[in-house]
């Protein structure tokens, strides 16, 4: 199984999803994330994942390319922009959309912003765990 998480800038939501999937997926599964654009990695996303024991600091912020699409079995868009701008998929790729709000747009004090990032991290963890459970059950 090759999972591909797609976001607008591959800086936050898709990075967290990739980190969780790498941690939770069975051995042998491939996991990637990409963006319609590459905006670099969000330091708050790295920090909240580290708080949960997941190191995503070495993951790259990359733009989606044809070889990533060709290798994917399952594509998950994690924002509306990526869903709307997702290129045509090769035959056989299954696609799912998660309409996740962008924690990078949170405002307020640093503590309030980090609370939003933690909530996003925990929501993404649950979604990734559910996805892996469903796909594992289908593979039987």
Written description of the protein model:
The chain is of the alpha/beta class and 140 residues long. The chain has one domain: Rossmann fold (3-Layer(aba) Sandwich). It is 45% helix and 14% strand. The protein has five helices and four strands, in the order βαβααβαβα. Strands 2-1-3-4 form a four-stranded parallel sheet. β3, α4 and β4 form a beta-alpha-beta unit. α1 crosses α5 and α2 packs across α5. The protein is globular. The mean pLDDT is 95.
Calculate the terminal CA-CA distance, rounded to whole Å.
13 Å
Shape: globular
Unreliable runs, pLDDT <50, ≥5 residues?
none
Query: What fold name goes in the CATH topology slot?
Result: Rossmann fold
Helix content: 40-55%
The major beta sheet can be summarized as: 4 strands, parallel
Number of alpha- plus pi-helical segments: 5
Number of domains: 1
Q: Which value, in Å, is the CA radius of gyration?
A: 14 Å
Secondary structure category: alpha/beta
Q: What is the CATH-assigned architecture?
A: 3-Layer(aba) Sandwich
Main-sheet strand order equals 2-1-3-4
């Amino acid at each position: 199984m090759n999972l591909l998480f797609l976001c607008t800038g591959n800086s936050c939501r898709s990075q967290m999803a990739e980190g969780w999937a790498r941690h939770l997926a069975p051995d042998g599964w491939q996991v990637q994330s990409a963006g319609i654009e590459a905006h670099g990695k969000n330091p708050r996303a790295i920090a909240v994942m580290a708080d949960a024991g997941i190191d995503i600091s070495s993951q790259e912020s990359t733009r989606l390319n044809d070889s990533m699409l060709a290798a994917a079995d399952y594509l998950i868009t994690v924002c509306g922009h990526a869903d709307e701008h997702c290129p045509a998929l090769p035959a056989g790729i299954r696609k799912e959309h998660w309409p996740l709000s962008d924690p990078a747009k949170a405002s307020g004090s640093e503590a309030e912003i980090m609370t939003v990032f933690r909530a996003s991290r925990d929501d993404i963890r649950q979604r990734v765990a559910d996805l892996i459970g469903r796909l594992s059950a289908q593979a039987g």
